Amino acid sequence: MRPCLGGPPAPCEEFLVNLLAVQCRLASAGAAAIVRPGESADKADVLAVFPPIPQGQQAPPWIMEAAASAGEVASTGTAAIKPLHGQDDMYGQPARRHAVLLPLRSGQGIRAVAAYVVESGNSRILAEARDRLELTVPLL
Predict the structure, then answer these.
(1) How many CB atoms are closer than 10 A to CB 131?
(2) Contacts of 20 (CB under 8 A, 6+ apart)
(3) Sheet architecture: strand order including 45-50
(4) Which parts of the chain sit beneath pLDDT 70?
(5) Would you tell me how many other CB atoms lie within 10 Å of the CB of residue 88?
(6) Is 13 helix (H, G, I), strand (E, B) or coil?
(7) Distance of alpha carbon 34 from alpha carbon 93, whole angstroms
(8) How many C-beta neighbours within 10 Å does residue 108 have?
(9) Contacts of 1 (CB under 8 A, 6+ apart)
(10) What pLDDT, on the 0 to 100 scale, is given for residue 49?
């Protein structure tokens, strides 16, 4: 995976990061990324991340998990909500965080996937976050 790290962001990347920040605020998401699926999850390109990853730091694990699911979302063209299990989660307990994954469509089909981290295990809250994000995802 090649995340966006280091140096000043390009104007396009800066726009995407700012848009992800607005979307996170609307959907009460803690983080977001735009992932372009590759031939495999480890070859995915991360086009933008919010909050930005400081230079020299590793990408958070949730981005790898989102990249692993991005190909499926891109191929089906439907949104998905995937659990994100953390190291502090108890075995067998439901996840307290979820990734809301939305396909990004263009004239040539689905070009990328937007992933948002929602800190909830409540299915109603997750569905509401997905609905809010689906309203704004065409801006991307």
Answers:
(1) 12
(2) 32, 33, 34, 48, 49, 50, 114
(3) 45-50, 29-36, 109-118, 97-106, 80-84
(4) 1-11, 40-42, 86-90, 92, 140
(5) 6
(6) helix
(7) 28
(8) 6
(9) 41, 42, 43, 44, 45, 46, 59, 63, 64, 67
(10) 94
